[in-house]
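Q: I'm writing up a methods section and want to include an example of the input and output format. Could you take the sequence below and give the corresponding predicted structure tokens, formatted cleanly so I can copy it straight into the document?
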Amino acid sequence: MNWLILIIAGLFEVGFAFSLSKYKITTGVASQLWISSFFICLVISMLLLYKASLTIPMGTAYAVWTGIGATGTVIVGIIFFSEPADFWRMFFISTLIASVVGLKFVSN
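A: Here is the clean output for your methods example:
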């Protein structure tokens, strides 16, 4: 169950990175909504990371949380912000995903 919580925490990390990016390109009320979304996602992500780290070793939990967030943020950047998706970028994201999956399998 705590692995699922950790995955959800990583997805909220993607949410706060996405919200921050949207905040930078909006103005007025929309800007305020995106910064509010940033803080909400940030708090939820941190609370879930804390909850998961009660049973998953902190080093593993943090690495998995960061890996999910980094991978998800790159994918969101490609889809929503027209960031490049060249071979080497995809190759290294793939190695990051493999590392996160590997940490799951070697954890107790």
